[in-house]
Amino acid sequence: MSEVEAQRQKEIQQAEELLFAGPQALGFAKGLFQGHFVADWVMPYPRIPAAQQTELDKTLAEVRQFLDEHLDPVAIDRQADIPRAVIDGLGRVGVLGTTAPVEFGGRGFMQMANCQVLEEIGSRCASTSVFVNAHHSIGIRALLLFGTHEQKQKWLPKLVTGEQLGAFALTEMEAGSDAANVQMQARPSQDGSHFILNGEKRYITNAAIAHVLTVMARTPVPGSDRTAITAFLVTPDMPGFTILEARMPKMGIRGTATGRFALRDVKVPKENILGPPGKGLKVALTVLDFGRTTFGACCTGAAKTCLRLAVEHANTRKQFNKTLGEFHLVKKKIARIAADAYAMEAMTTITASLIDRGLEDYMIETAMLKVFTTERLWEAINEAFQIYGGSAYFVDLPLERMVRDARINQIGEGSNEVLISFIALVGMRGPGMEFKEIYDTMLKPSRGLGKAWTAGMHRLGAAVRIPDVPVRSAELRSFANQLGRLIWRFNIAVNRALIAYREPILDLQLVQERIAGAAMDLFASTCVLSRWDAELQFARRNGDSAPQTNHAADLFLRQSFRRIRRFLSDLSDNEDKALLATANSALGKVS
Ligand SMILES: Cc1cc2nc3c(=O)[nH]c(=O)nc-3n(C[C@H](O)[C@H](O)[C@H](O)COP(=O)(O)OP(=O)(O)OC[C@H]3O[C@@H](n4cnc5c(N)ncnc54)[C@H](O)[C@@H]3O)c2cc1C
Questions:
Q1: For residue 177, which atom of ligand 1 is closest to its CA?
Q2: Are 491 and 462 contacting, i.e. CB atoms less than 8 angstroms apart?
Q3: Among 418, 419, 509, which is best to mutate for testing ligand 1, by the most ligand atoms less than 8 A from CB?
Q4: CB of 372 shorter than 6 A to ligand 1
Q5: How far, in Å, are 68, 98, 232, 280, 289 from residue 284 at the CA level?
Q6: Is 367 in the pocket of ligand 1 (CB under 6 A)?
Q7: Does ligand 1 lie within 6 Å of residue 140's CB atom?
Q8: Residue 16 or 305, more confident
Q9: Which of 112-121, 453-462, 541-550 has the highest mean pLDDT?
Q10: Which residues partner with 186 through β-bridges?
Q11: CA distances from 436 to 34, 38, 410, 451, 506 (A)
């Protein structure tokens, strides 16, 4: 076996251990890849229970009032700092412990409610929303999810009020996109009472202002010469903890303190381990699932701000004796932002509800949400910027800041390229395993035909059946039927790709991108359809016999379906060979 092949097999084995432990209920995204529409997870559109909605409304009112009175995004950007008074205030209105249990001083909100709070903050100031995310969505998340009762009792009360701040430290020089390549070492002490940590972390939000950091480091696997990642709670008062750079000067989200730190023989008690030793990567990925959900919420808030700004300007600025909003090319931009903002909110709500409703595995959905919302927001800001023309370029308007702030979204918490690959490959694993069963049996009939027969029947079943998309509103049936057909076509495309490429598909990122792109739009369309259906049902229940058309939802579905068809047809009609040859030639590599 070649070195490359050996490395590939090792990676596949690690991914299998990490991502696919034991049988799980079929989630929505995995269902899509198998040609099913797993309606229970997405329809009817989820709602926050009435009691919590009342609490949430109260909190949102308090948060809005606080932000109106005390949040100055321009000053935060210019001074590259979020004032302590703002952080304290966010703590007072509950934002720094929204989902933490009430017994530890948190609000005990579900993820759907948390997303509404983050959407509000994200609509105003990206520095502040990223700060809150770094503290609450990822900084204290491992403690919330994997901490023992004693650990929570010890650490959470001060963290949920903002008296203390949290951070999440995974990234290192050698471990960026390749998060599994963490080099920070954690050696057990002779008496087993603590671990000795050595290494450096970089690009860590809140590093220099945090009182408690969740740090990923490598520990030996007992009885072997291997190491695995373990999550530790580290505090900056531990001897050997050194801040190398407190605030790395940067382009956007300038109010956040992004830092570098080193641990030099830092003794961390074994009681500070979060989750099972050696399972830190699983801890990190689960934490990031939550971060990606609130990413979606923050991007939704910012997209709504883009829409508001674009509409204001298009309705007031006149050229050629007309307001800009009268020109079709301006209308096109505004319509697209409105349609996307509607979809982003729907997708965020449904993804958050998967967490709230206890789906065991929502990795693909959170990855789809992150990629989709960050890309759509980038586009929305660009469109709004264009509508403002030259005026957007000057610092007295928020759009130049929003451009700078939004650029990190496609990179942070998993770059979009890595996530696109992840969506396609994890999604295709289900049907891929069924095909493998069939191939292996064909090669070695002695393995018995039973499993291969079942796998073949599954594949065949999905290939002949167009899934039902159960909307309740008659006026949406046509969209629902089109969506069902597209899922069926998507499944055939996935099967074809698996049959045509087999294992080499792991490297074919241009194929993966189209598969992931179609899957994301199928998910986004589903969320839009579900939300629109709920709105129509609500209107009917309130006596409105002919509710108005929701133009944004209608446009989104039409555009999304067109994109899906394009992704699927591009699988066989493309210029990939020429593209790769051009890149190889530019890179100085042989094709
Ligand atoms: C402002 C800011 C705040 C941050 N906050 C935190 C934090 O709080 N905690 C934390 O742990 N980390 C944090 N990060 C780190 C962030 O998560 C990483 O920057 C990110 O994971 C990418 O890693 P990298 O920068 O090393 O890029 P690299 O891994 O070097 O990747 C560079 C680019 O290469 C491409 N690429 C990489 N791998 C692949 C692949 N397999 N296929 C195709 N293309 C690929 C992508 O386009 C990617 O953008 C922060 C970063 C920034 C800039």
A1: 29
A2: yes
A3: 418
A4: no
A5: 34, 20, 11, 6, 9
A6: no
A7: no
A8: 305
A9: 112-121
A10: 197
A11: 14, 24, 34, 11, 14
Which residue in this structure is represented by tokens 């065991």? 360
* Cα–Cα dist 163/267, whole Å: 24
Residue among 553, 539, 529 nearest 342 (CA): 553
DSSP-derived 3-state class of residue 133: helix
Q: In angstroms, what is the span from residue 415 Cα to ligand 1's centroid?
A: 6
pLDDT of residue 39: 97
For residue 26, count CB atoms less than 10 angstroms from its CB and return exposed for 0-12, middle for 13-18, buried for 19 or more.
Answer: middle
The helix (H) or strand (E) run that includes residue 179 is none
Catalytic residues: 413
How much is the pLDDT for 443? 66
Number of helices (H) and strands (E) in the chain: give both, helices first: 19, 10
d(CA 400, CA 384): 11
CA 413 to centroid of ligand 1, rounded, Å: 7
Helices (H), 407-449: 416-443
Sequence-distant (≥ 6) Cβ neighbours of residue 133 within 8 angstroms: 118, 291, 294, 295, 298
Residues 426-441 pLDDT 10s: 999 888 787 777 667 6
φ, ψ of residue 414 in degrees (nearest 5): 95, 110
Nearest CA, atom 52, ligand 1? 203
d(CA 430, CA 69) in angstroms, rounded, equals 51
The predicted-structure confidence for 267-278, as pLDDT tens digits, reads as follows: 999 999 999 999
pLDDT of residue 170: 98
pLDDT of 454 strictly over 90: no
> Percent of the chain beyond pLDDT 90?
86
Whose CA is closest to 70, among 92, 103, 102?
A: 92
Ligand 1 and 526: CB distance under 6 A: no
Q: State the DSSP H helix or E strand holding residue 265, giving kind and residue range, or none if neither.
A: strand 258-269
Q: How much is the mean pLDDT over the chain?
A: 93
d(CA 324, CA 316): 8
The closest residue, in CA terms, to atom 27 on ligand 1 is 176
pLDDT tens, position by position, 310-358: 999 999 999 999 999 999 999 999 999 999 999 999 999 999 999 999 9
Determine the pLDDT at residue 207: 98
Share of the chain above pLDDT 70, in %: 91
- Please state the rounded mean pLDDT for residues 468-490: 97
Ligand 1 pocket, 204 CB below 6 A?
Answer: yes
DSSP conformational letter for 475:
G
- 35 in Cβ contact with 462 (< 8 Å): yes
Gap between the Cα atoms of 440 and 447, Å rounded: 8
The stretches of 164-222 forming alpha helices (DSSP H) are none
Buried b (16+ CB within 10 A) or exposed e, 481-508: ebbbebbbbbbebbbebbeeeeeebbeb
- CA atoms lying within 13 Å on the CB side of residue 474: 4
Question: Which residue from 196, 139, 195 is spatially nearest to 164, judged by alpha carbons?
Answer: 139
Tell me, using a 6 A CB cutoff, whether residue 214 lines ligand 1. Answer: no
**Predicted confidence (pLDDT) per residue in 31-79, tens digit:** 999 999 999 999 999 999 999 999 999 999 999 999 999 999 999 999 9
Q: What is the pLDDT of residue 26?
A: 87
